[in-house]
Structures are given as C-alpha cells and as structure tokens.
Amino acid sequence: MLVKEADLWQTVLGEIELSVSHGKFITWFKTTRLLKVSPELVVIGVQNIFFKQQMESKYHDMIQQTLAKNGYKEAKIEFKIYSSLAPKKNRQQEDMVVVDSHRPSGAQTSSFAGRRPDGNGHKSSIAHAYRPGLNDRYTFDNFVVGAGNELAYAACQGIAQMPGTKYNPLFLYGGVGIGKTHLVQAVGNTVRQRNPQANIVYASTEQFVQEFVDALRFKKNTEFATYYRSADVLIMDDIQFFEGKEKVQEEFFHTFNALYQGNKQIVISSDKQPKDIPTLEDRLRSRLTWGMAIDMQTPDYETRCAIIKTKAAAHELNLPEDLIDFLSTRIQTNIRDLESELNRVLAFCEMRSLEPDLAIATGLLGTAKPRPRHISAKQIVERTAKHFQISIEDIVGAKRDKDIVVPRQVAM
Ligand code: ADP
Ligand code: MG
C-alpha cells in the first residue's frame, strides 16, 4: 500500500523509532524532514554534511526497507542538506596568517617544557619534563553512548579514523563533567593506536597558557611554537580559559593556522560555544567554527544508569536496580560527581567486604539530593532577599535601614 505523501515521513519515522534506541532516534532522525517524494525518488533533508555522511553509511538501508514496506519499493534515496541552520564558511574573507611550521625530526615523544632551564645547566635545550598528556583510561569502548552525547561520539570516532580530513576543527562544547575530556582523549588514544608514529599533542588550555608564559620568561618561544606546531593531532581541552588572554590567543591563532594549513587535525573542547566566550578575538572565534561544533547535552536517566552499570562492571560488580536508580536520580548532570558517589559506595563496601545495596548507599550518601557545589553570589543574594522579603536592589543598594542591614549582613 502506498502511504499518502504527507504522512509518509511520519510513518517511516514511527517505524524506525521502534527499531533503534531512543538516543539514536533523537540524534539522527528527529531533525530530518522529507524534502521531495515520488515513487522513484525520496529526498531526505538533514542538518549538515556530517549527518549526511552518517545517514548514508549507517541508516540508508534501514530507511530504504521502511520506505519499501510503505509502498515505495523502487524509490532511490537521496540525503540533502537543508541549510538554513548550517553555518556559513567565510574562509576567503579571513586574513589568514600562516606561520611557518618546520617540524623537527624525532619530535614525536618529546614534550615542550620550557619551564626552566634543565638541571644540567644546558640552558638552551628543552627539558623533557613530565607533562600530563593522554590517559589510556579514556577510550571509545568504555564511553557509554546515549541521547546527549551520541553525535559527539560519532564525530570523534569519525576523526579518529581519518584525522585531518573530515571535521576540522572539531569543537565540542557542553557542561561540566559530561564527558568532553573523555571523548577528546579517546580520539588521541585511538589515533595513536592506529598510528604509533603520529604526534598527538594533548594540552589543557591552562597548561598551554602556563607554558606560553614560561616560554616568554625563559626565551623559549621557538621551542614552544615548534612543539605545538609539529602536532599531527592537537587536542586543546577547555578553551574557555583563553578568555581575556590576548597574547595567548594570538599564539594559539598562529598554531591553529599552521596546523590547519598542513591538514592536521585540531580538536577543541569548551564549556561554552565560541560566541559565548566574550573576550575571544573575533578572528580566532571565527576559526573555531570553521569545522564542526557539537553541543553535548547532559546524559538522560537511561544513559546515567548505563554508565553506572558499566563502571560497576569494570569492578566485576552487578549492582541492584534500586541502587542504580537511586544514584542516577540523585545526580542528574555531572557524570564526574556520579562516578565519585558510586566510588564512595564501592570503596566503602570493599573495605568491609559487603555487597553494595541501597541501604548502604543511603546510609553513606543520605537520601537528600546533594547540594549544588557552586553557589554564586547572585543566588545567595536572591535567596536571602526572598527569605527576608525585601528586594534584591535593597540588599545590594546603599540604604542603611535596620531591616535591610541585617539581611545584607547575612548574605555577606
Ligand atoms: P568534562 O571534560 O566534560 O568535564 P569528563 O570527560 O572529565 O567531563 O568526564 C567526567 C567523568 O565522567 C570521567 O571520568 C568520564 O570518564 C566519565 N564519563 C562522562 N561521560 C561518560 C560516558 N558517557 N560514559 C562513560 N563515562 C563517562
Ligand atoms: Mg574536561
């Protein structure tokens, strides 16, 4: 039976929803639309090139079969980008400044550490000090994929397979503790595994800033630049820390250009989108959005449960459902906090040779939801004002009436 054109896509989506996970459906299908339909050709609109490639490779057959069931047996499928949302690329308009990146031989394992001249007094040589780099704890295998992170996961896997060729730079942004570092590290670990010769440079932005300052101080600017510009894959974590640091941004801008010109992969994470980092230089901001920017969302309840199960399984433990439910309900946004509560329970049980259960967890963690860790001054003022039933303006204002001074003291 040929389903009416107007209803076709709803019908197809309805059937697909039943056969893929909720996370996959939301990520890949929710934003699709039917652009054109005839018995010979069905054109499906997708958000961007990344979706197009993923849909073609992963879901083409499933869609074709579902269309066939609904009477479109002969139809060829095409995916087209409906571009009202797609960012424009303005590369030509940019003032591209490229700084020569000459790559020293044997730089793969060396690390820039111009913190101080090394202990042997060879002031001109680069000290090979310890620096935190890739941690092999972070892999794609132990990352639980769910609705909020599926897109980021797929994009990271994509670049790990073919660094420098696809989405460059990849920009991941989202709240604290939701797996950004885990994913960008997994990219580095995977590339390194596939190609041990590849020079993977991972740096937290704070580290980049600190090293830059030290390089200026100890006149090691060239070593610093060479180290970062000889990367095959540069991973910069938490780029929001560039905020307000002009010199460092300029240095990174040149690093970016050199790598980009050489088709080297750049992966960046941030807790904000480029447009929400106010003091980012415009030319750098624009470059950050050249490739693909992906918004990571907090994981939903099911994903949080799956994460707990995976972490427990790593300890060869099978936790009771009510305990898993308790933990996933208590902590809803930050996986790092979720992990640390789980670890508290597991460590407690291990020391006493107990099987983890809900009673132990509630005894240890309490039944109330944990307080948010960071309470801003604004929140405090708001709460105090509400409690004393006066206005916020009064609390922060200059009036010295007794019924205002006391709440002001409390807030302070
Ligand atoms: P962010 O960099 O976004 O602040 P992290 O990558 O440091 O967050 O993640 C915090 C912790 O939560 C890490 O230990 C990480 O392994 C874990 N984590 C986050 N998301 C997942 C996930 N989907 N599956 C497994 N572990 C996760
Ligand atoms: Mg992080």
Task: Produce the secondary structure layout.
Elements: H1 5-19, H2 22-29, E1 33-37, E2 41-46, H3 49-69, E3 76-81, H4 150-161, E4 170-174, H5 180-194, E5 200-204, H6 205-217, H7 221-229, E6 233-237, H8 246-261, E7 265-270, H9 282-288, E8 292-296, H10 301-314, H11 321-330, H12 335-352, H13 358-365, H14 377-388, H15 392-396, H16 402-411
Parallel strand pairs: 2-3, 4-7, 4-8, 5-6, 6-7
Antiparallel strand pairs: 1-2
The structure holds adenosine-5'-diphosphate (ADP) and magnesium ion.
Essential attributes:
binds adenosine-5'-diphosphate, 10% strand, 47% helix, binds magnesium ion, 8 strands, 412 residues, three-stranded mixed beta sheet, alpha/beta, single chain, five-stranded parallel beta sheet, globular
Write up what this structure looks like.
The chain has 412 residues and is of the alpha/beta class. Helix content is 47%, strand content 10%. The protein contains 16 helices and eight strands. The protein has helices at residues 5-19, 22-29, 49-69, 150-161, 180-194, 205-217, 221-229, 246-261, 282-288, 301-314, 321-330, 335-352, 358-365, 377-388, 392-396, 402-411, and strands spanning 33-37, 41-46, 76-81, 170-174, 200-204, 233-237, 265-270, 292-296. The protein has a five-stranded parallel beta sheet with strand order 5-6-7-4-8, sandwiched between helices. A three-stranded mixed beta sheet has the order 1-2-3, covered by helices on one side. Helix 10 runs parallel beside helix 12 and helix 12 packs across helix 13. The longest helix has 21 residues, at 49-69. The chain starts with a helix and ends with a helix. The structure holds adenosine-5'-diphosphate and magnesium ion. Adenosine-5'-diphosphate is lined by residues 143-144, 149, 176-182, 299, 307, 335-336, 339.
